[in-house]
């Protein structure tokens, strides 16, 4: 059987899992090629610990070249154009063509979508932003600290609320909690609303128990950095002394410029197989959109990228081996929720359930926090 080439665009969680699974499932006559512009992989769930001084970048970063020893090719380049029908991509390192194409380019942060966002707001969704956040928190002596979700959808829906609770605990240990007025603003009606009102209200109660204000249904219109004021649609406003935020998300330009996206700018895929409109072309992770029975899209989260990647890898390998692809992504997911004080919660459930997702939040405790630590260690050792 002649060897096949599988092109994987993006080396994030989805790209890593897909590449590793394909390499284990297929013989070395088949090429697994990952195209990634960065040299270093960052395990993004650990950024929340970093902002409060509980992690250093070296603890949760790995060089992409490490996966070459497994027989996975790495092309360090940026994808500049793609033809999904032909499974051909143009990159800054040249043109590549594959027998299969897996698009795992994620979502990018759009710092210019909200007027005044830059330079007033600091985001903690990337390594540089997390470093700036840690520095800002270390020098903050008191005042109003606002955490703002600028727009939806955004990846890791629990992260803003985890950050708020970790920061509250951080200032408690510094003896400054009474001097820090911590407030969260979001366009959503509840934290993590796709998971349902029971979970959302539970998280809201966790925030309020820690003296963190929660302000729903507020869409950010602009930021007045000079006056240190948030201006929301409808005219409401709020002051801040330090602004941490989740900027609007969008698909990378090379995706938006393709004919794969819908009106919202994301790639619609088959809910079970992750196929795009083109044969042997798949998309996984944050760059996709999957509409749920409840009428809202599947949240953007690493756990879904992970399981989607497993589904695609197993089906592609089966097809190459002349077998019937039978793996289906089932919409199940889970999330650790850091609460500070060495404790965490754990939510899991079926997001494909009808008429609405069935998600349960386990009783918080120290064991879930240690579970997340062990998961971090397992993930980095497993794939690198």
Beta content: 25-35%
How does the overall form come out from the CA principal axes? Answer: globular
Gyration radius over CA:
21 Å
Low-confidence stretches: none
Q: Which superfamily, in CATH terms, is the homologous superfamily of the largest domain?
A: FAD/NAD(P)-binding domain
Mean pLDDT: 96
The assigned structural class equals: alpha/beta
CATH class of the largest domain: Alpha Beta
- In whole angstroms, the N-to-C terminal distance is 29 Å
Helix content: 25-40%
Assembly state of the chains shown: single chain
Q: Can you tell me about this structure?
A:
By secondary structure, the protein is of the alpha/beta class. It has two domains: 173 residues, FAD/NAD(P)-binding domain; 139 residues, FAD/NAD(P)-binding domain. 27% of the residues lie in helices and 28% in strands. It is built from nine helices and 24 strands. The strands form eight sheets. A five-stranded parallel beta sheet has the order 5-2-1-9-20, with helices on one face. Strands 13-12-11-17 form a four-stranded parallel beta sheet. Helix 1 runs parallel beside helix 8. The radius of gyration is 21 Å and the shape is globular. The mean pLDDT is 96.
What can be said about this structure in brief?
The protein is of the alpha/beta class and 384 residues long. It has helices at residues 13-25, 47-51, 117-120, 127-139, 159-173, 197-209, 253-256, 302-320, 366-383, and strands at residues 5-9, 31-36, 40-42, 61-63, 73-76, 79-83, 88-91, 94-97, 100-103, 108-109, 143-149, 180-185, 213-215, 220-224, 229-232, 237-239, 242-246, 249-250, 267-268, 281-283, 288-289, 332-340, 343-350, 358-365.
